[in-house]
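Complex 274.
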Amino acid sequence: MVTTRRDLFFEARTAIPERNAAFEARELLLRALSISKDEYYLRPSLPVTPEEEARFRALLARRLEGTPLAYLLGEWDFYGRTFTVTPDVLIPRPETEELVEEARCFLTGRENVLDLCTGSGCVGITLALELPELSMTLGDVSEPALAVARENARRYPAANVRILRDDALAPSEDRYDMIVCNPPYVALSDPLADEVARREPALALFGGEDGMDFFRAILRYRLSLLPSGGRIVFECGETQSRKVAHIMETFGARAIRIRTDLSGKGRIVSGERP
Ligand SMILES: C[S@@+](CC[C@H](N)C(=O)[O-])C[C@H]1O[C@@H](n2cnc3c(N)ncnc32)[C@H](O)[C@@H]1O
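Predicted structure with S-adenosylmethionine bound:
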């Protein structure tokens, strides 16, 4: 009996224990067969070759043992573009699109901006593409993450982007008009989904005992380097916004703003240098 594209799709949809199993099954199939969505829907009853079936089964097996779909596909969508991702970087999250939105509220277009803790570079590259007059710097302490950011900068070439190693926990002398940052902010005691804890880089997740180390260090070392009115825009965990706002106040920031997501949770906190 021949195995068709559709047979493989149904097999995976049944096996994957996720709410969006149909989406995941289709994405794995398209990847294994190297075909587009349109090609699949035009000819779902086409038989697959033994090689295609083997590739598909290998991908499905890795998905079922917990590898996130984004790492299997090697790319993930963010703010309407597709970014390269590897297990060296955090998978871009939809809530981080709010970080881009909030930064845009304060940018007029010609500022010198640092995306600190850049990971895949999705935040900074998006801002650089949306506002091509910006001077954008992407910084991360992880060389493997910087390699992914470089790959994404090649994927979306923009003249206004540079990439460098930058340790957010250390003093700095570099001056920017704005810092955007989605730092590691998970506290040691925070519960984490198994797939996140086991598969995404620990360096991208944990922000010290109470999850606040990066907020404190970045404010301590970098707020005073901004020009008056220059802003730091942070993403934080869904229960952390008040605490981050308080830390901002303690370090002397003013005009502090908490942006809530669609479910009313404060995820983005920003403040400016007086
Ligand atoms: C939560 S991820 C954010 C990635 C990306 N900006 C995003 O929003 O998808 C945090 C990033 O911080 C980086 N990181 C960890 N420690 C750091 C440090 N001391 N200095 C700079 N970056 C650091 C990690 O490598 C990781 O890429």
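The longest helix spans residues 50-64.
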